[in-house]
Design brief:
single chain, 380 residues, mainly beta, Immunoglobulin-like, four-stranded mixed β-sheet, 36 strands, 7% helix
């Protein structure tokens, strides 16, 4: 029995040795000729992973199981790989060579790390209001499908009505004119988000002369007409304001009376005083305009001169009695005046005296001419 066991063992040994030394097909199965890495080319999203598979093969293309695979990356700062072939996207870039080595034989795959795609964009605040001339920065956030923010995405900005609300390349909105709502759109990678912006007129805060009073003639309407604007804090005329405005004399060097329409409402933010009249000559007049709740304004100084001579005024009465054929002890003097009663300094105007009532005749020089001051003095 012992002899048979030994023979059996020897027989098995001989068969094994015989196969090793004579059958070359079995030797090929044990020899790794190439390593196939799949997928051969792929993308990995930044911050995500992708599993690669390495298959060692013989020269005949037969897979060799049970061999240890050593993984490496040509640029682990962009795409790293674990000992099991799990690739991680570390930074944008590539392609990076991911290598798998088995028994000294290496295969590789190309991996490119790409950004996470934008799923939707949110603009904040989503709805807001501005005053004309006011600015407001909007914020756009790119989000992935899981609502996670995606940093570093550039945005393009657009306004549906830039004449009402314009927007800069950085998302700052400027109120241009009253209106809205205006749609402000932020776009990146084919995805867009919007916000609605309405623009309101800035309230009137003050009054300002936009047509100052100029040199005027007593008794005649100021020309051009005085105009006053209702302005906001940026000195812009508030077109929609209709406040009532009152005008009055501030400086009154001639003791004049102001007549005409002295209170009026604004039309498109402008109050026009079209028929103001001053009745006294003077230099240094100013107007004051007021309106409840608004800062008042004072005009520039202006002068009022006399108008054309339109009437006579006796400034020195003749004697109340006289001897026939004798000179009047008190000779009369006459002054030229304009329509408002101001002295009209006009020389060379003939003035004739005549008896207005009573009997008798008037002798002497009954017609004299005015001097440079517009005065005519009778002497005989």
């Amino acid at each position: 029995m012992k002899l048979r066991a030994r023979l059996a063992a020897g027989t098995l040994l001989a068969i094994s040795i015989g196969c090793t030394t004579s059958d070359t097909g079995v030797a090929d199965v044990l020899l790794v000729a190439s390593v196939e890495v799949t997928p051969a080319s792929s993308d990995v999203l930044l911050g995500s992973t992708r599993q690669l598979e390495a298959t060692p093969k013989t020269s005949g293309g037969v897979a060799v199981p049970g061999r240890t695979v050593v993984w490496s990356s040509s640029n682990p700062s962009i795409a790293s790989v674990s000992s099991s072939g799990l690739v991680s996207g570390v930074a944008l870039g590539g392609p990076v060579r991911i290598q798998a080595t088995v028994d000294g034989v290496t295969g590789e795959a190309q991996v490119t790390v790409r950004p996470v795609p934008v799923d939707h964009v949110v603009v904040t605040p989503g709805q807001t209001g501005l005053l004309v001339g006011q600015t407001l920065p909007l914020t756009a956030i790119a989000l992935d499908a899981s609502d996670r923010p995606l940093a570093g995405r550039p945005f393009s900005w657009q306004s549906s009505a830039p004449e009402i609300a314009s927007v800069t390349t950085t998302g700052v909105v400027l109120g241009v004119s009253r209106g809205g709502p205006v749609t402000i759109t932020a776009s990146t990678e084919g995805k867009s988000g919007t916000a609605l912006v309405s623009v309101a007129t800035r309230p009137a805060t003050q009054l300002a002369f936009v047509q100052q009073p100029g040199p005027s003639v007593a008794g005649q309407p100021l020309n051009p007409a005085v105009k006053v604007a209702l302005q906001d804090d940026l000195l812009t005329t508030v077109v929609g304001a209709g406040n009532q405005v009152t005008i009055a004399l501030a400086a009154n060097p001639g003791g004049a009376t102001l007549s005409g329409t002295t209170q009026a409402g604004a039309v498109n933010g402008i109050v026009t005083f079209a028929d103001l009249v001053l009745n006294r000559v003077g230099t240094g007049y100013t107007f004051l305009v007021t309106s409840p709740g608004l800062t008042s304004a004072t005009s520039s100084p202006f002068a009022v001169s006399a108008g054309a001579a339109s009437k006579l005024a006796i400034i020195a009465q003749p004697s109340s009695s006289a001897q026939s054929g004798q000179l009047l002890e008190q000779q009369p003097s006459v002054q030229l005046q304009d329509v408002a009663g101001n002295v009209a300094s006009q020389a060379g105007v003939p003035v004739t005296a005549a008896i207005a009532s009573g009997t008798g005749s008037l002798a002497g020089a009954t017609t004299v001419t005015t001097n440079a001051s517009g005065t005519a003095t009778f002497t005989n």
